[in-house]
Q: What sequence folds into this?
């Protein structure tokens, strides 16, 4: 390894981190504006044109706020927890490719991704799991019962939904026959995996909502029950770090979702074989993935504005009794479909979406049935 | 089709919120854009004048007596034809309303025999010191109409003897 390569990595990592942090700041504005529009309001529009300076104003405010540490808190862990939450959220995007064609800058060929490891998806799973430590430690070290309960809820929820998340990753891995992110994207050249595995994508989207603690699964910070959950005792910049972790995770998980199921940096299907294809104009890759991330983020905000928070026991029941078996069934279906495609007829790949939708409808029917039975029993 | 019913319900929820986004926001951009107040809005008090510029207030302090919050302080002094502020014998030499005490009930308006004190449409009552909450007469009194003299006026003797004017019964 020469010094220039190290420098290249450092610069690329630095740039990506800066993009993520800027993205976090503007995601808060995006969310507030979108939520406001859904509620027939305008949202923050005073600081700068269209409120574009609002994130800066918020940051300045948070930096200058007093930082309180509870007297009986575990000082070291209290300090460590926000850092432990932020770092995985930022680091996780290292494997997401923003394009594929290397470009030349200052006489060096530079790849438009940081790390191209052959177990990219596994890396994502591994790093995503670390984030839960930060949250549970934040809750525990605060020495506050609400924070503690928020942290515990969060850990239980994130661990439960991580299984489902992992299994929905498996469908994409099976379809691409690789764990390398670039291979997964290139395998979606003809058909995005959302077409081949629609229910798997839906489960992925639901599980990500639970994984990043967003409404309607924002149990760990249920304001009405737990004041603010694990970050009750945090203020000033430490709070800002926890907040940053939450929103950076949203961006990261949207980037991963876009890569695994929505064609990543590849163009939209109606643009293939035109000048706008990534093969012809490679610099459009980052633009496409950015667009997909923005759309997925809007979906998250939209869902938050629509659905009420679900009860904690139902959240766990939904995760363990429904999502986990369904995603296992989907993995099975995907495997069968791939065998049929390879051994019998390539068109049989479309068995996967057909059977998946059947399984999904069956699952919805089962929930409906159970809820109706409970409802009848109550009467 | 009972199986897809829950999905349709979920989608309807999403459609409802999405439709809201296409609607015009109801926000009023306040400092730039102000909505007119309702006709019977009770805002900051205004001390009225007659058309000839004399003050309506005769310093009777009935408003102060009627005030449930004890927000009004009135001191009266004698009118003369040389130095005349209002018709009749007396005028309010001091008229103060403490806006921190005032509850904008409008009893002062009802109690006033000359319709001098009226709750206007100004609701932008902000101050940064407690002393500033006491609005003196100079702040409350209506500016002089165009073409009339300010008070005190020098008038012909024997014209303004009646302190309470002849009025119809109030309609509103």
A:
């Amino acid at each position: 390894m020469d010094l220039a390569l190290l420098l290249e990595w450092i610069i690329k990592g630095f740039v990506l981190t800066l993009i993520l942090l800027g993205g976090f700041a503007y995601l808060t504005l995006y969310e507030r504006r979108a939520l406001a529009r859904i509620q027939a309001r305008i949202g923050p529009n005073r600081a700068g044109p269209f409120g574009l300076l609002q994130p800066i104003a918020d940051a300045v405010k948070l930096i200058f706020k007093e930082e309180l540490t509870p007297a009986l808190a575990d000082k070291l862990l209290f300090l460590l927890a926000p850092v432990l939450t932020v770092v995985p959220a930022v680091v996780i995007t290292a494997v997401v490719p923003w394009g594929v064609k290397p470009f030349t800058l200052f006489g060096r060929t530079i790849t438009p991704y940081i790390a191209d490891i052959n177990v990219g998806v596994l890396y994502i799973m591994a790093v995503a799991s670390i984030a839960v430590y930060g949250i549970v430690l934040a809750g525990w070290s605060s020495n506050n019962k609400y924070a503690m309960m928020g942290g515990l809820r969060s850990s239980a929820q994130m661990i439960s939904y991580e299984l489902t998340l992992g299994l929905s990753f498996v469908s994409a891995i099976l379809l691409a026959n690789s764990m390398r992110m670039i291979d997964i994207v290139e395998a979606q050249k003809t058909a995005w995996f959302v077409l081949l595995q629609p229910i798997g994508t839906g489960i992925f989207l639901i599980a990500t909502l639970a994984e990043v603690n967003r409404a309607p699964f924002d149990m760990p910070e249920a304001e009405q029950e737990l004041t603010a959950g694990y970050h009750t005792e945090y203020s000033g910049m430490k709070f800002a770090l926890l907040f940053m972790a939450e929103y950076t995770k949203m961006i990261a998980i949207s980037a991963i979702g876009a890569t695994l199921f929505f064609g990543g940096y590849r163009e939209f299907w109606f643009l293939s074989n035109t000048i706008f294809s990534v093969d012809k104009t490679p610099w459009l890759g980052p633009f496409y993935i950015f667009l997909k991330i923005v759309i997925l983020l809007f979906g998250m905000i939209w869902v938050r504005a629509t659905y009420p928070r679900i009860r904690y026991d139902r959240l766990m029941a939904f995760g363990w009794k429904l999502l986990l078996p369904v995603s296992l069934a989907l993995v099975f279906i995907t495997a069968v479909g791939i065998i049929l495609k390879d051994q019998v007829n390539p068109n049989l790949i479309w068995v996967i979406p057909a059977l998946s939708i059947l399984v999904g409808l069956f699952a919805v029917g089962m929930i409906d049935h159970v809820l109706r039975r409970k409802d009848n029993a109550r009467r | 089709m009972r199986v897809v019913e829950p999905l349709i319900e979920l989608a309807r929820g999403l459609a409802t919120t999405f439709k809201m986004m296409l609607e015009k926001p109801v926000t009023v951009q306040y400092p730039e854009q102000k909505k007119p107040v309702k006709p019977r809005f009770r805002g900051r008090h205004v001390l009225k004048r007659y058309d000839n510029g004399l003050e309506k207030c005769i310093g009777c302090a009935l408003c102060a007596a009627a005030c449930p919050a004890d927000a009004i302080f009135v001191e009266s002094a004698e009118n003369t034809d040389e130095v005349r502020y209002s018709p009749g014998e007396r005028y309010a030499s001091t008229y103060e309303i403490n806006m921190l005490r005032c509850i904008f009930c409008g009893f002062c308006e009802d109690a006033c025999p000359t319709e001098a004190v009226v709750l206007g449409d100004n609701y932008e009552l902000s101050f940064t010191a407690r002393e500033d909450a006491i609005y003196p007469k100079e702040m409350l009194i209506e500016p002089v109409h165009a073409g009339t003299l300010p008070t005190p006026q020098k008038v012909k003797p024997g014209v303004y003897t009646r302190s309470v004017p002849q009025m119809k019964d109030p309609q509103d």
Remarks:
- The CA atoms of residues 65 and 153 of chain B lie 29 Å apart.
- The longest strand of chain B covers residues 90-98.
- The helical segments of chain B are 5-22, 62-66, 107-111, 137-140.
- The domain at 45-140 of chain B is CATH 3.30.70.3270 (Alpha-Beta Plaits).
